[in-house]
Amino acid sequence: MQNQATPQPVKILAILVARPDKADDLAALLGTMVGASRAEPGNLRYDLWRDRADPGRFVLDELYVDETSVAAHRATAHFQHYLSRIGDLADRSVMTLDPREVA
């Protein structure tokens, strides 16, 4: 019998900075992602944060069961809609993280 690797959770942090005069549109788009993403079977966390010092800067804090769940998220209609609009609304920096010492 082959030894199968245990699936590892995947953390994604996305930092989004609104383009000039686009903060409200960005907030609205990101708001549509929360409920739909949280409802996905492999999603463990999907939190939206807004920077106190810069109300045009947002952070998405996402956690998925495994890489398969991330792929499923990226294939959803709501994520595809987000991708189609995000470039016009914000500069985006995304980190995909593997666990090291996580409680």
TrEMBL record:
The keyword Flavoprotein does not apply. SUPFAM superfamilies: Dimeric alpha+beta barrel. Residues 10-103 form the ABM domain. InterPro entries: ABM_dom, AI-2_Isomerase_LsrG, Dimeric_a/b-barrel. One of its GO terms (molecular function) is monooxygenase activity. The keyword ATP-binding does not apply. Keywords: Monooxygenase, Oxidoreductase. This is Quinol monooxygenase YgiN.
